[in-house]
Design a protein that fits this description.
There is one protein chain. The protein has 276 residues and is α+β, with helices and mostly antiparallel strands. Helix content is 48%, strand content 18%. The protein has helices at 12-21, 34-46, 61-67, 71-82, 124-140, 151-161, 164-176, 189-199, 204-214, 219-231, 256-260, 266-275; strands at residues 7-9, 26-30, 54-59, 86-90, 98-101, 106-112, 115-121, 235-240, 248-253. The protein has a seven-stranded mixed β-sheet, with helices on both faces. A two-stranded antiparallel sheet has the order 8-9. The longest helix has 17 residues, at 124-140. It starts with 6 loop residues before the first strand and ends with a helix.
Length: 276
């Protein structure tokens, strides 16, 4: 069904939800802002499988890179890409506003006075021309290579290769964060992995091998981050002898506040300690 009247909402996610619910086919998204990209991933992730259209998004490469620096957004986007719901491509667009183009309507996103409006047209000839033009633009645009692994694969392999308790803590930490960038706006995915591993006394070798195999980061990155967390007192290590070769290191939480924290408090306390 087409959207036939203008939309007004407090935020972009309400508009996005209305647009995604308006068609079971294909939506072309042109010139999205960072907020729109994040909103699309959030809303599409919340839909039941098969209940939303295919989303073809063309954005400025710098905007996409910045948004996908957030592990939470990127890993959910990777899931949507893996199941064929979302495709990301890059191109500079001469469209002034963000556009959502479906086979039945065109919605231009406009913000003013703390609210967001979706200005709609369902004029058949205009919609057909716009859909064809933006589909052609999408088809010609280069694919954006997202290197973050799908969250579903991260969770599945963490449970299989480490254990369910570590996965439960990993989920709780992610759910407590609004973003996971590691630049002061949430902890990054390597830090989160090491903290939940330390909470569960996992070997550094095991968590870093898992992280490298699943595509989160290299073993070297895990080792460097471990050293940083150890230097700041967030984690500690103890040597575990093995039959052949150098002893391996078991991770442990190194601060009493972290030891006493619930898993959903872990991130806030760790970030506070890192910033102290």
């Amino acid at each position: 069904m087409a959207i036939r009247s203008n939309l007004l909402a407090e935020g972009v996610e309400d508009i996005i939800s209305s647009v995604l619910s308006s068609t079971a086919d294909e939506i072309l998204v042109a010139n999205p802002t960072a907020e729109v990209i994040e909103g699309l991933v959030t809303v599409a992730t919340g839909f039941d499988d098969g209940d939303h259209p295919t989303i073809h998004l063309v954005a400025d490469e710098a905007v996409l890179k910045d948004v996908m620096d957030d592990f939470i957004v990127a890993s959910n986007a990777a899931d949507l890409i893996a199941d064929g719901t979302l495709s990301l491509r890059t191109a500079r667009d001469d469209v002034e506003n963000t556009l959502f183009v479906t086979p039945n309507s065109v919605v231009a996103l406009v913000g003013a006075g703390g609210k967001v409006a979706g200005l709609v047209t369902d004029d058949e000839e205009f919609v057909k021309t716009a859909f064809e033009a933006h589909h052609e633009r999408w088809a010609d645009a280069p694919e954006f290579k997202l290197r973050t692994p799908p969250l579903s694969r991260v969770r599945e392999t963490l449970a299989e290769n480490i254990d369910e308790d570590t996965l439960d803590d990993f989920d709780a930490v992610l759910n407590s964060l609004s973003s996971a960038r590691g630049d002061g706006d949430g902890l990054d995915e390597v830090t989160i992995s090491l903290l939940v591993a330390a909470r569960n006394n996992v070997l550094l070798y095991d968590i870093s091998k898992w992280g490298e195999d699943v595509g989160i980061a290299s073993k070297a990155t895990f080792s460097r981050t471990k050293t940083k967390l150890e230097d700041t007192g967030l984690i500690d290590t103890e040597k575990v002898p093995i039959d052949v070769g150098r002893p391996r290191l078991r991770l442990k939480l190194g601060n009493d506040r972290l030891v006493d924290a619930s898993s959903d408090e872990l991130a806030d306390i760790a970030q506070e300690l890192l910033e102290a």
